[in-house]
């Protein structure tokens, strides 16, 4: 019996991974990442850094972010507390799914993880207060290679579930270009 299940999404390179969770009267135990189990599931990546964020307010939107080569990153995203709508947008110019996205709810309850490969812009919006998001990456952070895509680009068609007050954004995330204006980073 495998320690994880791997599900395809509408964009085949983006995967939903659900680790097994074993519970009893004390709580639960789960191997949220096991290199051997991932390799058996067809995912062989070398993660080098773990990131952890807390978003206090519902509607906190982080993204859409990515890094260029030589610091491009695969990401494995999970939510140990709260809920998010996690979004991956294909920004590989020659891809048949260029400009398309996958949106998946990740939560502490459903225990799903999203694998966002290199060549995708990534972002999420919180659906619960005090949501924590953790993600592993395959390359170190590089400010010089850090880019973004406008989360609200109408050409993307992402249906962000925002509260009545709208998105809670950083100044940086208000200024990203639209897809049509994005440099050819992943050609």
TrEMBL record:
The keyword Isomerase applies. Its EC number is 5.1.3.13. InterPro entries: RmlC-like, RmlC-like_jellyroll, RmlC_Cupin_sf. The keyword Cytoplasm does not apply. One of its GO terms (molecular function) is dTDP-4-dehydrorhamnose 3,5-epimerase activity. It is an enzyme of class 5 (isomerase). It catalyses: dTDP-4-dehydro-6-deoxy-alpha-D-glucose = dTDP-4-dehydro-beta-L-rhamnose. It comes from the Bacteria. Keywords: Isomerase. Transmembrane segments: none annotated. Gene3D superfamilies: Jelly Rolls. Pathway: Carbohydrate biosynthesis; dTDP-L-rhamnose biosynthesis. Homodimer. Catalyzes the epimerization of the C3' and C5'positions of dTDP-6-deoxy-D-xylo-4-hexulose, forming dTDP-6-deoxy-L-lyxo-4-hexulose. Belongs to the dTDP-4-dehydrorhamnose 3,5-epimerase family. This is dTDP-4-dehydrorhamnose 3,5-epimerase.
């Amino acid at each position: 019996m495998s320690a994880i299940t791997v599900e395809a999404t509408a964009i085949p390179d983006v995967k939903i991974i659900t680790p097994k969770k074993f519970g009893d009267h004390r709580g639960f135990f789960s191997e949220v990442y096991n290199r051997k189990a991932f390799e058996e599931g067809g995912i062989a990546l070398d993660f080098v850094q773990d990131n952890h964020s807390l978003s206090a307010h519902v509607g906190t939107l982080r993204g859409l972010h990515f890094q260029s080569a030589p610091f491009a990153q695969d990401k494995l995203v999970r939510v140990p507390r709260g809920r998010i709508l996690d979004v991956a947008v294909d920004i590989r110019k020659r891809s048949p799914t260029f400009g398309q996205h996958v949106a998946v709810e990740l939560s502490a309850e459903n225990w799903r993880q999203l694998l966002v490969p290199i060549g995708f812009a990534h972002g999420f919006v919180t659906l619960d207060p005090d949501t924590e998001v953790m993600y592993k990456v395959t390359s170190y952070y590089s400010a010089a290679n850090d880019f973004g895509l406008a989360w609200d680009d109408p050409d993307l068609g992402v249906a962000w579930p925002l509260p009545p007050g709208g998105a809670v954004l950083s100044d940086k995330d208000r200024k990203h270009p639209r897809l049509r204006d994005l440099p050819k980073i992943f050609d």
